[in-house]
């Protein structure tokens, strides 16, 4: 990836530290140090270095303070090489629990957020899932290990093209990528069992609610940077149930949301 921009905005992260009594408040720093000590000093980081760092990342995801318990989600996180979805110059940080810049002022989400959002969807092997905000393609790759089909939309065309090529190269063949405005969803492929949105609109887009199956789930950040919550939404007929589950910091959903 040569289009790396140092001004890339932080996305898909949470600054909510777990309560100190649960011993997790300093986890990201410690974890980063472990990763740097293990893989950061070598000139050439080997595949087994990455595999070991990935395993440690997964152990941290299920530790007290993080509490991702679904073994299928943890297995998916253990199987997808995040190092393949970040710029070459940042690969040594691929398994730190941080968002990283991917160019075009965008970022790959923090692993904890990817695991948390995936878990909230309660994915099933027969599900067809829509993602808005493909970015690097990493979240789509994790989902693709857990469900039948993933449809993902990215508004920045070069990012959509690069993610599509990376996903194909790495063998994630049940993911379809579309370059376009995810505010409108993907009506031709609807309805979806669940929808995951990784950029933040000011309000939940009605087309996405319409394209969700009855009893489907949507996980979506809503609000502006500095005042954003991740919502879990469930659709029961015409009734929409929604609950705020985590304060987060995602980049804004552009165009469609602004047009509104
Ligand atoms: N899920 C990504 C990270 C998301 S970053 C990953 O795993 O790497 C958020 C992405 O949402 C950015 O790439 C941004 O370009 C995209 N985005 C913003 N508004 C959008 C819109 N209206 N439709 C589709 N994608 C959008």
Describe this structure in words.
This protein has 260 residues and is an alpha/beta fold. Helix content is 30%, strand content 23%. The protein has a domain at 14-28 and 100-259: Rossmann fold, CATH 3.40.50. It has helices spanning 27-40, 47-62, 71-79, 111-120, 138-144, 157-169, 206-210, 256-259, and strands spanning 100-103, 106-108, 128-132, 149-154, 175-179, 192-197, 212-224, 227-236, 239-247. The strands form two sheets. A seven-stranded mixed sheet has the order 5-4-3-6-7-8-9. A hairpin with a 2-residue loop joins β8 and β9. The protein is globular and about 55 Å long. The model is unreliable at 1-10 and 16-42 (pLDDT under 50). The chain binds S-adenosyl-L-homocysteine. S-adenosyl-L-homocysteine is lined by residues 11-12, 106-109, 132-133, 135-136, 138-139, 153-156, 159, 181-183, 198-199, 251, 253-256. Residues 11-12, 106-109, 132-133, 135-136, 138-139, 153-156, 159, 181-183, 198-199, 251, 253-256 line the site of S-adenosyl-L-homocysteine.
Helix content: 25-40%
Spans of at least 5 consecutive residues whose pLDDT stays below 50 are 1-10, 16-42
Terminus-to-terminus distance: 33 Å
The chain-level structural class is: alpha/beta
Small-molecule components bound: S-adenosyl-L-homocysteine
Q: Which strands sit side by side, in order, in the main sheet?
A: 5-4-3-6-7-8-9
Query: Approximately what portion of the residues adopt beta-strand conformation?
Result: 15-25%
The CATH homologous superfamily of the domain at 14-28 and 100-259 is named Vaccinia Virus protein VP39
Largest β-sheet summary: 7 strands, mixed
Overall spatial form: globular
Number of helices: 8
CATH topology of the domain at 14-28 and 100-259: Rossmann fold
- Using only C-alpha atoms, the radius of gyration works out to 17 Å
Mean pLDDT: 86
The CATH architecture of the domain at 14-28 and 100-259 can be given as 3-Layer(aba) Sandwich
């Amino acid at each position: 990836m040569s289009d790396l921009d140092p001004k890339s905005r932080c996305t898909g992260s949470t600054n909510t530290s777990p309560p100190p009594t649960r011993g997790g408040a300093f986890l990201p720093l410690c974890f980063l140090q472990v990763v740097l000590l293990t893989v950061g000093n070598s000139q050439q980081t080997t595949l087994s270095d990455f595999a070991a760092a990935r395993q440690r990342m997964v152990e941290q995801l299920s530790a007290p303070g993080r509490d991702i318990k679904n073994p299928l989600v943890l297995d998916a996180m253990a199987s997808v090489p995040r190092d393949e979805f970040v710029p070459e110059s940042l690969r040594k940080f691929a398994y730190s629990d941080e968002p990283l810049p991917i160019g075009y002022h965008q970022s790959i989400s923090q692993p904890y957020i990817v695991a948390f959002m995936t878990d909230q969807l309660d994915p099933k092997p027969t599900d067809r899932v829509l993602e808005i905000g493909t970015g690097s393609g990493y979240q789509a790759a994790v989902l693709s290990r857990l469900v039948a089909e993933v449809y993902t939309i990215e508004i920045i065309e070069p990012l959509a093209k690069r993610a599509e090529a990376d996903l194909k190269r790495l063998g994630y063949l049940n993911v379809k990528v579309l370059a376009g405005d995810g505010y409108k969803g993907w009506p031709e492929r609807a309805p979806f069992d669940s929808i995951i949105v990784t950029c933040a609109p000011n309000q939940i887009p009605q087309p996405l609610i319409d394209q969700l199956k009855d009893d489907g789930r949507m996980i979506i950040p809503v609000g502006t940077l500095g005042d954003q919550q991740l919502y879990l939404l469930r659709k029961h007929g015409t009734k929409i149930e929604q609950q705020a589950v985590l304060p987060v910091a995602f980049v804004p959903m552009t165009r469609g949301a602004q047009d509104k």
